[in-house]
Design a protein that fits this description.
It is a single chain. 30% of the residues are buried. The protein contains 16 helices and six strands. The protein has two domains: 72 residues, no CATH class; 226 residues, no CATH class. It has 375 residues and is α+β, with helices and mostly antiparallel strands.
């Protein structure tokens, strides 16, 4: 089986009790069947402890009143790990923060930015992300209703999209326009089941002369869009409003959204434009604690597109995958802006890191939210 990972994959090392937001609190941890059987049969006094702290009906670890896992000690270390070793961990605990997408003869593994340490690593990534491939002998699983022909087109499309997103000769806004337009054209073809015509779409965004023409159109459309103060304001509001339609996983998330909303949109279209322009100038003046905002937005876009785009092989929803990716980066930028404005023109790398992992925890740890953001 072919394994594909981002080049920064090996940089990750869990910081355990030094983590500012432990992954063992805030949500229920689902236990796989094999681990449940092990826990049921664990002998001795600690086996009894396991069985008291596990909800075998729901297949999850019990939590205290603060939503902390029953095995999470006050020093934020795992008691089960200390007592029984790494092999005792369930699949969820052993894999996190790895995000795995399974395809026929292919396993793509990314590191989810819901982990503060992964968010920090991505923030510090300056060069365009590359991906490593490795063949590993494993038992290959057969996938029902998997269309390898369609999947090969999706892989080609994703490669073109990532190439566009990493083209630093273009503004980030133009790159987004191009990728979104390409996804729209692909979706139109997919809906009439004429997949061979996808090659024509690829040519429009890969062949040099065609791409140059697409860039001119994107630059024209981007300029017209940003010159319309009211349109920009309502677009931003509409994207941000989508977050209120998601299920809230953290108790204080709605309160946080409300605060961002008032900061961003409380003074109308003119107030929003003024703060946006000031923030844009602030970002241009110097990197924020070494973070170049354009590079950060690029890395986030590539992160979402790589992790989720090819999943369209299972639901045909190409535009939904790109919409989620673009909207996620759009709202993250708005949150950076709101934090900066709320702190009298100050923004740190730590602020950005916390916004990134908090948003990811609300989105990527809920299949419901992922689905709604793709609709």
């Amino acid at each position: 089986m072919l394994y594909v990972r981002p080049e920064y994959y090996d940089k990750f090392k869990c910081v355990a009790d030094r983590c500012e937001a432990t992954c063992c609190a805030g949500w229920q941890i689902v236990i796989d069947e094999e681990a449940l059987l092990r826990y049921k049969s664990e002998p001795g006094e600690y086996g009894e402890t396991l069985r008291r702290r596990i909800d075998f009906t729901e297949g999850v670890f019990a939590q205290d009143c603060h939503k902390r896992c029953a095995f999470l000690k006050e020093n934020n270390l795992c008691e089960m790990y200390e007592r029984l070793g790494e092999e005792s961990l369930c699949v969820t605990c052993a894999n996190y923060p790895r995000h795995i997408e399974e395809f026929e003869n292919l396993r793509e593994i990314t590191l989810t930015i819901s982990c503060p340490e992964v968010a920090r690593i991505l923030l510090e990534q300056k060069e365009p992300v590359q991906f490593t491939e490795e063949e590993i002998d494993t038992d290959e699983e057969e996938f029902e209703d998997f269309d390898p022909f369609f999947f090969s087109y999706l892989e080609d499309a994703r490669q073109i999209m990532i190439s566009i997103l990493q083209n630093r000769k273009l503004s980030v806004a133009v790159r987004i326009f191009l990728v979104y337009k390409m996804a729209e054209e692909m979706q139109d073809i997919i809906e009439v089941s004429d997949l061979f015509d996808l090659a024509d779409v690829f040519e429009n965004y890969e062949e040099e002369e065609n791409l140059a023409n697409a860039v001119r159109i994107a630059e024209r459309d981007r300029k017209a869009f940003y010159e319309n103060e009211t349109e920009v304001f309502f677009y931003s509001k509409t994207v941000f409003e989508r977050l209120y339609k998601l299920e809230f996983l953290s108790e204080d998330w709605k309160e946080y959204l409300d605060k961002c909303w008032m900061t961003l949109y409380g003074k109308g279209a003119r107030g929003y434009r003024n703060v946006q322009e000031k923030f844009r100038e602030y970002c241009k003046q110097a990197p924020i604690d070494g973070i170049d905002m354009d590079i950060l937005l690029e890395q986030l876009l590539v992160y979402f597109v790589f992790a989720y785009f090819c999943g369209a092989v299972y639901d045909d929803n190409v535009i939904g995958k790109i919409k989620m990716s673009v909207d996620s980066v759009t709202v993250l930028y708005q949150m950076f802006l709101a934090k900066w404005a709320g702190q009298d023109g100050r923004l740190s790398a730590k602020d950005i890191q916390r916004i990134v992992y908090r948003y990811s925890r609300e989105l990527e740890h809920s299949d419901v939210n992922l689905g709604r953001m793709q609709s």
